Amino acid sequence: MTGYVHLDFVDLALAAILLFFNGALSLVLQLRLERQLAISAVRMIVQLMAIGFVLRALFSTVSPWLTALAALVMVLFAGREIMARQERRLTGWWSYGLGVSCMATAAFAVTVFALLTQIETDPWYHPRFAIPILGMVMGNTMTGIALGLDRLTSSAARERTAIEAQLCLGATRFQAMLPFTRQAVRSALMPTINAMAATGLVSLPGMMTGQILSGVDPVEATKYQLLVMFLISGGTSLGAVAAVIAGTLRITDSRHRLRLDRMTTGP
Predict the structure, then answer these.
(1) Can you give the pTM of this predicted structure?
(2) Nearest to 196 by CA among 219, 172, 228, 149
(3) How many distinct structural domains can be found in the chain?
(4) Which domain holds residue 28?
(5) CA 140 to chain centre
(6) Is 70 within 8 Å of 54 (Cβ atoms)?
(7) Are both 70 and 39 inside the same structural domain?
């Protein structure tokens, strides 16, 4: 085991040549992705460098309030991403608020559970452990909630006639929406299921790879990766189910009517 390998900016610049290769490929094949590629790359560099300095400051202070503030900022940005990925959005603050509340509840619950019962750091809110775990759980929970809500609202709009026919025949809103809520939850969980099925055999996750590159024993890195995958699975399930149920309640009402007027299309 050789331990941690330091990377300098020359190493990163050499690796960044691959981005120029992608841009050249887009120009040659006329994919028109070079602008998006450049913007995404610049955004990634700025975001990661910024979070690096923020985490360094957090690790040196170990304040529960600063850790909570960082977590809150992450949740608010993730809520915006959920809203941006919806083809049909709930009107008003529902689109943003529902995603934020469901994701925050699921991600915080799972992260605190892991910190208190498996990681057991002192203090339990130490940002070195809390922020990375929360980020990994939240990233996957965000994707699950976004997919679930998008599938739910799209299905409700597309199958409006069938749903209203069920309601006219005496079905409750839960009975009429049940096939579509099931599909929505299934869509939300599918990326996580696929990731678990492929992990180890097809791909080595970034966290495990990073630990191995930094000198951690591969078996110990595997244990941490398993823990993270279990947490991601739990967080995604909890958040997606809560969001789909809440979304179902929002696009129907207590009089068992379909309320598509509570949705809008476009940004």
Answers:
(1) 0.84
(2) 228
(3) 2
(4) 1-61
(5) 3
(6) yes
(7) no
